Amino acid sequence: QVQLVESGGGLVQAGGSLRLSCAASGRTFSSYSMGWFRQAPGEERDFVAAIHRSGLSTYYADSVKGRFTISRDNAKNTVYLQMNSLKPQDTAVYYCAATARLPYGRSWFSTSRNYDYWGQGTQVTVSS
Question: What is the CA 63 to chain-centroid distance, rounded?
Fold first, then answer.
């Protein structure tokens, strides 16, 4: 069982930056691959980024590639999402997710049903 708590959301102007954090409970954090998803009002939950449990592979949605960076610190049981050059269309609730399943490629990581644990979400609002 893993509990996830996101933080770092807020209101920022277009072009600005935010860093989201997701703190995980438990002593087996390094066994979990981690992902970030987001959901805007009235829309489906979309994949943003993911990182393999090894930390050696990362995956991004095309809409954030080159602007967002996912990373993890296993010593702190935390995964981060550095978001730069933010746009109004990045406005959403951002969710952290964890999976202990054996991953297989980008499409696997981008599928929300492959994740077993979810945080409560943190709001990111980008003003124009």
Answer: 14
